[in-house]
Each structure stands twice: as C-alpha cells, then as structure tokens.
Amino acid sequence: MGDERVNLLGLPRTELEAFVAARLGAKPFRARQLMKWIYRRGAADFSTMSDLSQDFRAQLGEVARIAVPEIVEAQVSGDGTRKWLLRMDQTQGIETVYIPEPDRGTLCISSQVGCAMDCTFCSTAQQGFNRNLSVAEIVGQVWLAHRELGRGELSQQSGRSAITNIVFMGMGEPLANYRNVVPAMRIFLDDLGYDLSRRRVTLSTSGLVPQIYKLAEECNVALAVSLHAPNDELRNELVPINRKHPIDELLAACWHYLDAQNGRSITFEYVMLDGVNDAPAHARQLARLLKGRAAKLNLIPFNVFPGTRYRRSPAAAIVKFRDILNEHGVIATIRRTRGDDIDAACGQLAGRVIDRTSVRLGSRLSAPAPVTPGQMPAQVR
Ligand code: SAH
User: Fold this and answer.
1) β 82-87/70-76 pair status
2) Whole-model pTM?
3) For residue 196, which of 29, 37, 264, 317 sits 20 to 30 Å off, Cα-Cα?
4) Which residues, judged by CB distance below 6 Å to any ligand atom, belong to the binding site of ligand 1?
C-alpha cells in the first residue's frame, strides 16, 4: 500500500503554512521552523527536530513525511566532479552532477526521466522520455547533494554550503515540466529554503517559447538557451523544437524575458560539432544575430557518447570560432569539460529510462498534415 502521508519536501512556504494550520492547527511559524530543519539542516526525520514539542513531532509523523530520493550509484571523477544515479521508481533512475570549482560549487539537476525534445547530439534524447519529475523529486536532488557534500572541503573551509549555484542542465527539458520546475525554483530562492540569489539559479531550455513568456512573469531566475545553430535550416536538424518555434521567435522571447525581469544577460549554449556548425561562416552569422544584445555565448565542446554520429570540433576550430565572435563584439567563452571520465559532462547523462514515446519529436514535427481516412500515411522523413 502506498504511503498516504504528505511529503513535505518541496512544498512551497504558503502551502506548508496552510498544511500545518489545517492538519495540525499550528501557527505559520511552525512551517518556517520545519523549512529550516528540512533545507538548512538537512533533516528527514521529525524526531531530530529538537525545537518542536514531542507531541507536535508525533502528530506530524502521522500525517506527513520527508521522502528523499535514494542513491543507486555514486561516482567521483578525477577532477572532483561527482555524479549520482538516483532511483525514481522500481526500474528508472535520473542523474545529478556536482561540479566543484575554486570559487563555487554548481549542482546540475534533472527535471524529467529522459527527455522528449529529441536533440540529435544529446545522449539523454537517445533514451527517450518517460515522465516529469515531481517537485519533491527535483528538490530532493538538492537535498541529497547537500547531505552527501556536507563534509565537503569547501563547506569545511568557508563554513558555507558546498552548493552555490543550481543549473537545470541535467536530464530533461525543464520548461516542458513547468508546473513542477517553478515551485522547485521557489524553494531554491526562498531564504528559508536554499536561499540562492536569482543569478545563481539557471534554467536551461531548448527553446519552448510560450513557456519563456510565462516564466518572465512568474519566476525570476537566470535563463540559458540551447541555440546550437545560427540559422533555422541547421537548427531544425539539431534541435527539432525549432521547427515549431524558429530562431527569430525564440530570440524575441529571450529579449522580452530580459526586459520583463530587468535581467543582465541571456546565456546561449552552442555545442561545437565538427564539420556541422563550427565553420567561421557560422560564427559570423551568429555574431549578426546577437550583436548589440545582452547575450553571452557559451561554446560547449561536444561530449561523445556511444552510438553518436557526431565528433567534437578540434580545439583550434573552437578557439577560432570564439575569436571571431569576440572580434564582432559578442562575448563568447569556451566551457571547460568536467567529469567526462564518469560520463557526467553535458549531454552525457543517461540515467535509466523506459521510453514511453511512440513517435519521436523530430519525426512528429516533420510529418505532413494529418492523413484523411482511406489515405495511406505519407512516409515520414
Ligand atoms: N533541455 C535543456 C537542458 C539540457 S542539458 C536544454 O536543452 O537546454 C544542458 C546543455 O548541454 C544544453 O545546452 C544541451 O544542448 C547541451 N548538450 C546536450 N548534449 C550535449 C553533448 N553531447 N555535448 C555537449 N553538450 C551537450
């Protein structure tokens, strides 16, 4: 039988206040105490919450629980990057990656089991899609990493948390799970949650335009956009969602996002694929798109995975690409590859996914108009 008790992990502050009032007749400050225990102190057991009365803790245990994900496998890279495979149900798992740097610690989290966006150069896409993660499963990744890193060097030295930044750059398309991703981000920003500034929480998207407009109104975080190509013809091939929301629409949404939020800049990610999108002409075309805009380009050397048809651009080509952009007044940096010895680098996260999609997005969006009865289905490219 399933556990009927409410999982408090990931409940937004107002909902937690309403819950303790309705179920336990408690004042709102009880909710605030609970949040401090769950997020700051990493508690998962009501019995350790020493500033709550014995009675209150016992009552809580009857109606609520703090259910956290379970680690199936933990790996540490030679460069200190860590990767956890977390159990989501009987058969499936997602991956979370921690990247330590001298001045910060970035946690790269997943938003879905698999991904339905079908980008041709991404390992997660090859797994297909199963389902969205719940708010608790998203927040649970941070909760767990906090626990695992609790005795980390950074936190010992500085006394602050090992996690200074959170990025939605793991498995999944976060804007396709808008309903759960936004409340999770609120916990990351809440001063009784993980208390991160809005510049330190980054949502990375392949370009779901309507949701970018929605997010602009509802939640204030940094935005990264997976561009990967300077024209629609090429982007249609690499990032199939472009066939629905082409580059000019996407960029208009990005500039609106910055205006609406008074943001500093948008980061555009650009994976460097040998002989595909890495020619000097592509760099010049890209510069024309972004010149004069509050944009930064992050060039990501392609990370290989089994079965891929792509190769990483040679280092010299990547440097040249960056230099052309910089000469044209567009800020571009090359992302250092981290954790590739444990398959923890961008685009390498695979987890364990049972694909439930019947038709891949790439095929669906290039399919002709629906067939009328009696007609044979047209061949899908
Ligand atoms: N769905 C979100 C998050 C994806 S992962 C998005 O599309 O933005 C974060 C970044 O890694 C994205 O920019 C993605 O395009 C990039 N990426 C995917 N596969 C990659 C690979 N094999 N090598 C390098 N970067 C990759």
Assistant:
1) antiparallel
2) 0.92
3) 29
4) 119, 121-123, 169, 173, 204-206, 226, 269, 271, 300, 302-303, 346-347
